[in-house]
Write a structure and sequence with these properties.
The chain is mainly alpha-helical. It is built from 8 helices and no strands. It has helices spanning about 1-15, 20-35, 40-50, 55-75, 80-95, 95-110, 115-125, 130-145.
Length: about 150
């Protein structure tokens, strides 16, 4: 896998197009880097690809998914603040009710209830029937009402 990443990186760096399209080369490199576990480098490649085509939704989705994975790994390592940054970037790239809800949960755990409520509401704006976000919003409002 390392050899594949190095070859793809060399092709992109030299400006060689893969299969006739530089964007495809960077997307392939991003996917190879994900497979190799190099999430920061994968994010950088997807961001370069977006610089070439900001309107390419597939790249935005791949970047969002990679940011979510990176956020999850940071969250598992106990780095909640850094994880939140990556989850928020993911939501900015490709809005997701699930990710928005998860950001709200993490914020609620940190005691940031006003911001958590905004996240739950944003999740419900994306998916009004999302039961977890509905439940989390009700609970956060109830807790906030008791704490004020």
């Amino acid at each position: 896998m390392r050899f594949v990443c190095e070859c793809l990186a060399a092709a992109v760096t030299l400006g060689v197009t893969l299969l006739g399209h530089a964007l495809l080369g960077q997307a392939l490199l991003g996917q190879a880097l994900i497979a190799a576990g190099h999430l920061p480098a994968a994010v950088a490649e997807f961001e370069r690809a977006l610089d070439l085509r900001p309107d390419f939704n597939e790249t935005r989705a791949a970047l969002a998914e990679t940011e979510e994975r990176w956020g999850a790994s940071l969250e598992q390592a106990g780095q909640t603040a850094a994880a939140l940054d990556h989850y928020r970037h993911a939501v900015g790239m490709a809005p997701s009710a699930e990710t928005q809800n998860h950001v709200g949960v993490l914020l609620a755990k940190r005691g940031e209830l006003d911001e958590a409520i905004r996240c739950f509401q944003a999740a419900l704006a994306l998916d009004p029937k999302f039961q977890n976000a509905q439940n989390n919003l009700k609970l956060a409002l109830k807790v906030l009402g008791k704490s004020k």
